[in-house]
Amino acid sequence: xxxxxxxxxxxxxxxxxxxxxxxxxLVTKARVAKFDETVDLAARLGVNPKHADQMIRSSCxxxxxxxxxxxxxxxxxxxxxxxxxxxxxxxxxxxxLVERIQKDSWLDFDSAIATPDMMGLVGRLGRVLxxxxxxxxxxxxxxxMDVAKAVRELKAGRIEFRTEKTGIVHAPVGKVSFGAxxxxxxxxxxxxxxxxxxxxxxxxxxxKSITLSSTMGPGIRLDTNQVAALLE
Length: 232
Prior knowledge:
The chain is α/β, with parallel strands linked by helices.
């Protein structure tokens, strides 16, 4: 471990469970790298992803974005294609775009949107886009007729997330440079979204553990009881 990391780790009491405000303040102080580190949330939920009705997959519009430029492609034709371009999509296409991805292995984008009528065509890319979490999906709002709104939201900082096999959701909630207040706004937006998506079949405590950390920094564990109280 580097000295910088050791000094950052000393700031964090591993036995303590921090409030949301304390954690957001501390994660900006416990930075390690010289670059602007991403701040990530790891929430272990009381769900069993093996059951389809407890698999959580959705998106969340963060008030202050994620602090990076998001490259968006749109599969659409005609009027919808024009709307996507006007909304700021980086690349818009149909058969030509599918062919570019298939033949040239072009994947220089972060998110993909498609109109419902294009999904038969886009389905050919399932083996390529699926493993990279780039496949348009109605659950996260990327299969839609309102492509302009979807493009604007993704560009502004809407993030997609899903529960892993262990019931953990990982999601970026901003950059260290955002400061505590903006990080808190983003973090609460994400936690409120997770709370709203709680499956009716999930039993027991929903937020099992919540950890906040910067890219290279130590994990900061939150007080789940305080979080639950904030979300009531």
